[in-house]
Amino acid sequence: MSSIKVLKTLNVGKGQSMEITMNESEPEDSMDRYVMDTICTGEEALEIPPHWHMNHQEYLSVVEGRIEITLNGKITIVKAGDPAVLVPRRAVHSVKGFLGEKLVFREKADPTGLYKALFFNDVFSNGGFGGVLHTLRAFYDGDAYLALPFGSQLIDQAVGAKTENAVIFVSVLGGIAHLFVSKKPETL
Q1: Quick one: which of 6, 8, 117, 166 is 20 to 30 A from 153 by CA?
Q2: Per residue, what are the HEC states of 140-175?
Q3: Class of residue 23 by CB neighbours under 10 A (exposed 0-12, middle 13-18, buried 19+)
Q4: Chain segment 57-75, per-residue pLDDT in tens
Q5: Model pTM?
């Protein structure tokens, strides 16, 4: 028997929220233990900009509606009922919803744990994106790196330093942001 508990609901944007849930019947190391569902009314299209993660991979799926996932430059439309899309570590990815369409988009992190929920709690702690400095500080404290423009990842790969520029960018600016914005919340 499933025992799913909503730990927190976060405001993500206009007509957009995220439910962080925990399935108490699943063990701590289960990918089904902690789940983040982003719910969109369609009033505004969901848009998650290009980024990547160094230390975890993600499984993205759609419970209701459809999304456009761009993974390392390849665009895929994922609909409710389609298999989850694996986003490997270090893969640049972005997500877009569709204006006027209701969407429930699910994310599970691997390795498992509460860290991803704490990251989202941090990013949206101000009732949506908290501005550039806050977001850079949250990325610095979490496992998220912006995909820098102008194909910098391709340049990085060509010189054998894949993702180094983005790491430096987030590390320097995220470190500076620590001086000006609130600290990361430690709990939900």
Answers
A1: 117
A2: HHCCCEECCCCCHHHHHHHCCCCCHHHHHHHHHHHH
A3: middle
A4: 999 999 999 999 999 999 9
A5: 0.86
